Amino acid sequence: MKYIIGIDGGGTKTEAVAYDLEGNELYKVQGGAGNLSSDAGSALSNILDTINKCRDELKGDECVFIALGLAGVESGNNKEIVYQALKKEFNTEIKVMNDADIALAALLKGEDGILTIAGTGSICYGIHNNKSARAGGWGHLIGDEGSGYYIAMEAIKNMASREDDLMPLDNLSNNVLQALSLKSPQQIKGFVYSKGKAEIASLATVVVKTAESGDKASINILKNAGRDLARISLQVCNKLNLKSNVKIGIIGSVLNKCTIVKSSFEKELTKSLDGFKIIHGNTSPTLGAYYLYKPKNVEK
User: Are 90 and 199 a contacting pair, CB within 8 Å?
Assistant: First the structure.
């Protein structure tokens, strides 16, 4: 039997799934982090480990294609490092790309369109007529507008501004302090400058819950996040000359779980696109390997 392997490598885990040539899952395994920008050596070791576990499980069968979607792979020469390491280990066709690439292929079943990701960070990636484009994805120090990190930091900035203007703390500020067991706004500095991006981004849930109670400051932050995510989506559409009937995949809790952000996102898209279809991300990115492998005997 011939099979393919799809890899989705991120900051917390690496998932490897083997599929037959009809797209049926044969075996799935998870390993350690696969983000090469954090620790390239460790990430590469985790990636190779998950692939080998798939191959050991399917010993005797032939792996004809390995597609890897990896966070941080576009930094420096990481892509070439991964490719050469795998070619040395495995005698098969290999394709290395970023995690957005493989997720787009999985969600849109290999068809043209765009993918907007809004979780801890944010990015939009698209493909049309074999041309690809992207917007956002600059990281939390440069951009990441519309992301969980952005939402959390907007709440923290709102608190700092009120403190400096001698204004009483609003509901959002009090809820943030309560969530962190802090007594004063000045203590927020210790949290921000000692915690990682993901821990800070987790405060976005506080903003969402506060907005659900009708808090205007929280609602405005979430609406702005939706508009920012629409902006990077439209930038990709413009780069690819997509103006109508656009397929837009969305991945990440910010867009999939927050109705205020999603509503604002769609409202902004309506102003510039002549029709679009939202496709929710509930498919493993690893399935993108199946749609990226296109021999004559495999139909999309």
Answer: no
* Separation CA 211–CA 150 (nearest Å): 16
Q: Of 285, 250, 253, whose CA–CA distance to 69 is shortest?
A: 285
Q: Report how far residue 9's alpha carbon sits from residue 241's, in angstroms, rounded to the nearest whole number.
A: 30
3-state SS class at 73: coil
User: Could you tell me if 104 and 249 are in contact, meaning their C-beta atoms sit under 8 angstroms apart?
Assistant: yes
CA distance 125 to 51: 26
pLDDT of residue 295: 53
- What residues contact residue 60 under an 8 Å CB cut-off, 6+ apart? none
**What is the distance between the alpha carbons of residues 229 and 254, in angstroms, rounded to a whole number?**
10
Distances (CA, A) of 1 to 64, 160, 192, 213, 293: 10, 61, 52, 56, 16
- Render 158-203 in DSSP notation, one character per residue: HHHHHHHTTPPP-HHHHHHHHHTT-SSGGGHHHHHTTS-HHHHHTT
- The two tokens of residue 296 are 């004559």
Q: Which two tokens stand for residue 196?
A: 């990682």
Beta bridge partners of 131: 128
Model confidence, pTM: 0.81
Tokens 């790309």: give the residue.
97
Mean pLDDT of each 10-residue bin along the chain, 300 residues long: 93 91 95 84 93 94 95 87 93 92 90 91 91 89 91 97 96 97 95 91 96 97 98 97 94 92 97 94 89 63
Reduced DSSP (H G I as helix, E B as strand, rest coil) percent helix, strand, coil of the chain, to 5? 45, 25, 30
